[in-house]
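FAQ: What does the model actually see?

It sees only this:
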Amino acid sequence: MYKPSRRTLLRAPIAAAGAGFLAACTSSDSEPSSGPQRASGGEKFVPAGPRGYVNPSDPEVLAAERKRGAGRVRAFTFTAAEAELDLGGRSVRTWAYNEEVPGPLVRITAGDVLDLTLANRLPDTTTLHSHGVRLRCDMDGVPDLTQRAISPGADFRYRFAVEHPGTYLLHSHVGMQPDRALYAPLIVEDPKERLSYDKEWVVILDDWLDGVEGSTPDGVLSQLRPGGSMEMGSMAMGPGHDSHSHSHSPGPGRSASTHPKSSKKSTGPNRVLHKSHSRLLHGEGGSVAYPHYLVNGRLPDNPSVFRCRPGDRVRLRIINAGSETAFRVALGDHRMTVTHTDGYPVKHEKTDALLIGMAERYDVLITARDGVFPLVALPEGKKGKALAVLRTDKGNKNLPSTDARPDELDGKTVPARRLEPDDSVALGDRDPDRELRIRITGNMQKFNWGFDHKPYSARQRHAVRAGERVRLTLVNATDMWHPMHLHGHTFSVTGLDSVGARKDTALVLPHRKLVIDFDADNPGLWMLHCHNQYHSESGMMTVLGYKR
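And it is asked to produce this:
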């Protein structure tokens, strides 16, 4: 069974807590302290919106947190600040956690209390969202819905019990910040782990443009919207590009001041992608042509290298931290056995490749062969690749070429809807108590993404009640695919004759529908949104609220 090495433990910024501190801090009855800046200036934060709903720090939320228990406290500190980062030979100016990309590994055990202080040293407000974690609502990190955004120069203390093991992702939830380096892996180990393996490899995929030739995520968003400053990017247009114009206006939940004004300085080269196609995604790959794709923060010509011995059984925890790219992933000369998706175990399934949408996570097992092997992540429907290397040989073999393209990429790919949950996490048979139906709307020409033709407002509520089994049908009425994410819950991807894997993020293909079931067992106000950052920031977000 895998146990983290001493080096791994030393690298993780863990502060030991004394017995007196534990006794003082494990009560869930009161609002957690948030350092120099509390959740709302010393008061419990109550978002604007209709009455009759459970608010983020209401008694129902605190009662649910008490049920999760209060184990040992694991303390971490992230500092969000401007940073100069080395992507493996290329230097970029961006925003990052602790001047790293990816941000620092946070490793805890199920049952622990995560105590993470976020120090905001950015020139903008920020928050931190624990993606996929079923946590207390006032620690969910959604500005203007579960907390006030953290002001520049202020700190906020996120503190909550983590009940379920799995592979998760920490990231900012303000505007286009997730398309910078404001993300980090969260690994929650299972004290009753049933998998047997020798090594663990955390693999984080990303699409990158910030700081490259003057590009910023906000500048590219302005290019995508009608009336945007596309004419300014003609000097660096890539293959398949043209000067067709898209737009710019402040996104939902953001003030106009947080978006750079359209100008040659702020928008950089034209990054709009046209005429892409992906067979797996049943249409276009996306709207943004990224100049770079990364594995663990490194470019393909200077890749991250993972070393182990021939015959080692290796657990890969693969996380897509990208903002606008689905990746097809394969390891040369190896088959993978899928063991988990989005942190929850599935019945083991062998595959050659994986298709991973934004913010999805897959755990797989491989038995390492002798030699040097490329781990390749192809951006679906786009040009380029991300590359890392598995190395078991003791010799001096050269690293794989940046042109490496394993045959496995064209082999068997198991979609999430075909995976079956492990019996230990399968939702029990039950008819839904409530059915919700939401249409996914918008198009790439107007870039007017939303639900039911409505842009996002924090005042929106789709009502559910505690204790209900809810069936949510998402009907994709667009020509684009969307990775849909529900905060605070996991759901079962429901088929005609089967109960699907437990997930928190799932792809909805163009002109198809996604039917999911979930138990309303975590009171509060929870966001449902597309995890294409350019879509969500353009309006494809809404709120599920627990009705009293």
